[in-house]
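User: Show me an example of a complex going from sequences to structure tokens.

Assistant: Sure. Here are the input components:
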Amino acid sequence: DIQMTQSPSSLSASVGDRVTITCRASQGISNYLAWYQQKPGKVPKLLIYAASTLQSGAPSRFSGSGSGTDFTLTISSLQPEDVANYYCQKYNSDPWTFGQGTKVEIK
Amino acid sequence: QVQLVESGGGVVQPGRSLRLSCAASGFTFSRHGMHWVRQAPGKGLEWVAVIAYDGSIQWYADSVKGRFTISRDNSKHTLYMQMNSLRAEDTAVYYCAKEKGEGYNSESYFDYWGQGTLVTVSS
């Protein structure tokens, strides 16, 4: 099975900072990569699909890039409401594996 | 609007069974693949199982294969998960999630999630 590895596992940044989270697949998955945001105590929410397409309603400060095995999620200007866990997920084939998550906090 | 409402969670002893349900509304249920995803307390998301839009295909995570069975009743707009031989490590919030695309398609990421139902396996 393809493994999904996120880094870092947690980060702390200041409001307004640019934040980057990476996700690496153990084998190529083309662009079948989604990012989800899960705020504390809430349900996961789709942020980005097809590696770089922003889900309707998601703030434009979020962007995704990558293809094959290496992907990034970028928050261009971190806001207090972005405090959350972020998960990447492959969806090209069974199993629909998630990364282990990245916890984003405000410094 | 799309709604997914899980039910059936609770406290169960190791080795026993439980059946979860997910009632869907606000979209054409019979056109979309459906998934179960779980999250152990304080842990990350773990994909559990998927069933095709017509119920013809199911896939499972290795951790539940042979113990859990996903099914659906399109006439009742409901997704199910039969969980047998439960273990302590199955303790988690179980979410149902809807695929974005219809039929067999490449848009199999999750555009809607339910609120989750907590399953606790403990003696």
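The lines above are the inputs; the final block is the predicted structure for all two components together. Chain B touches chain A through 22 residues (CB under 8 Å).
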